[in-house]
Fold:
Amino acid sequence: DCKRTMGYIRRFFYRLKRSDPARKAARAHLKAAKRGDREQYLALAANYIDLAQTFFGCSFAETTEQRMARVTQLFNELWQNLPYAERLSDFEFMLAQALIESSSDQGLTTSPEALVTKLRLLSAETRFAFLADAFGNWPQRWIALVIRIKAPALHRLLSEARCELCSISWESLAHEERDCLEAISATLDTCNNIRANKSLSKRTRAFPRVKEIKAHWLELRPELVEVRMRYILDQNEREQLLSNILDATTDGSMQRPAL
Structure:
């Protein structure tokens, strides 16, 4: 009983920790933006600009100006459909779907950077989930929610993506190796449970190839940061983009859901 109680307390405080003040502020921005406050909408959009810029950069071979124009159009369309977003998760779902649909039919555009080409080879949905997990500061349960899949399916999706980016064939892995990699993916950045970590470490020792693949996954991180930095705007560009979004929403009106 004591162990069960302590486990409940730990989970409770973990949920409190995940209740990010930034998300509370974003909910407030959304509520005000739905009443027509464009400046509050701009504050909301600012939380997602880097993810959108990175996603488009990892999808299309375009100039910075062309990517900024895409992002402006994206957030203008989201503004017009804002009344349909009852909750912040609804807005994020709309954002995710808009990004995925914008690049689902694009032909492959290669890049001098091998890693960027590999990212462009991923399906649009996988690319979004991977980038939101790696750079968007989105907890995996939120990513699973907005792309409408269950958590185990997301762990497999991310595991396959990481292997693809490391030039490792997922199909070449045994079922047990895949299961182990999916468990590693689920806890790669977030697991604070010492006992679970020890258990997973012991399980991994039985599969030398899994240990090697995990090492490749970790080595991938600095390369991914370099890719992201290629597409993140500097301060002047960011201010210009926000100004463009504000101008676009001033010219566009919200759609009102039918009563």
Notes: The first helix runs from residue 2 to 18. Residues 76 and 247 are 9 Å apart (CA to CA). The two ends are 51 Å apart (CA to CA).
